[in-house]
Amino acid sequence: MSQKWVPTAKESQELQQFQAEWGTLQQEDISSADYYFNSYAHFGIHEEMLKDSVRTGAYQRAIIQNKHLFEGKTVLDVGSGTGILCMFAAKAGAAKVYGIECSEIVHIARKVVKSNNLDDKIEFIQGKAEEVTLPVDKVDIIISEWMGYFLLYESMLDTVIYCRDKWLVPGGLIFPDKASLHIAAIEDGEYKEEKIGFWHSVYGFDYKVIQRSVMEEPIVDTVDENAVATSSCCILELDLATCTVKDVDFVAPYRIQLKRKDFLHAFIAWFDISFSCCHKPVTFTTGPYGRYTHWKQTVFYMEDNLVCQKGETVQGLVAVRKSQKNPRDLDIKISYNLDGQLGKANRTQFFRLR
User: Fold this and answer.
1) What pTM did the predictor assign?
2) Which residue among 121, 164, 178, 335 is least crowded, i.e. fewest CB within 10 A of its CB?
3) Are the CB atoms for 326 and 273 separated by under 8 Å?
4) Which CATH architecture has domain 179-353?
């Protein structure tokens, strides 16, 4: 049996002091009315991104190894977070670096920059990029880590495009400047049954009405490369120097070919990134054949279990648009057609990336 703890007189004084100190802590508490920006105000998500050596290492190489591009330049970091990219740019010789950050993490970033004696070169502006004013009319380089799950989730690319059109000098550089989105199909029967089939019977009750909602939710997870049973197909290519907001809502055909006789249970998508303006281009992939990244891969389960022979093809269309309810979410539509020896299918499915 548990017992109630009764503090001593000294412990009571310590408790009162601790309670009094809470007010001081609350002044540095990180909060925001906007859920999206609030999520970036917490340290956990920044720790995950900073520890992603593929992500952060690529930016470090692209910037630090190209000092000739940054020397004496004015740089803008869109969505600057803890300030790591700003500090890379300052170390590369930028004359001035401006970081736009809407979340409360900006207060921590200022302290981090000061601790590294870079506060004379780096200045943070808190607010939404579409609403703030920069101390300069134009910048020479824009850097941003804008990519979300499925490349486009959270719609931060729209903000980068806005900043490019408003502040980047003609011929200015964007880091990174190229992105591509890819699709393939996998054998994943065991997990599909665990995730989808579970709803057939829950403690003896029929929960299949929930199954469709579950099917509509893509899963962000790490896919073993051995599960990939088809070739891959690029469904979107973006050049950040020229792309527009309209390019982010798109429809594209795909055609993938079976590498072996196998079942297909789901599509997966990933993206590749390139800093092509560097002296030696820096690239990285978030696909199943590359090193782990926090973006992982996005998995879309099919209603059908396709049975395919080696060499057969699955083809269809992928359509993506911003959700009308929340433009940071995505509505995704995938059609697939198989006319094989062992199986046939012709279906369109809808997914919601929330």
Assistant:
1) 0.86
2) 335
3) no
4) Distorted Sandwich (2.70)
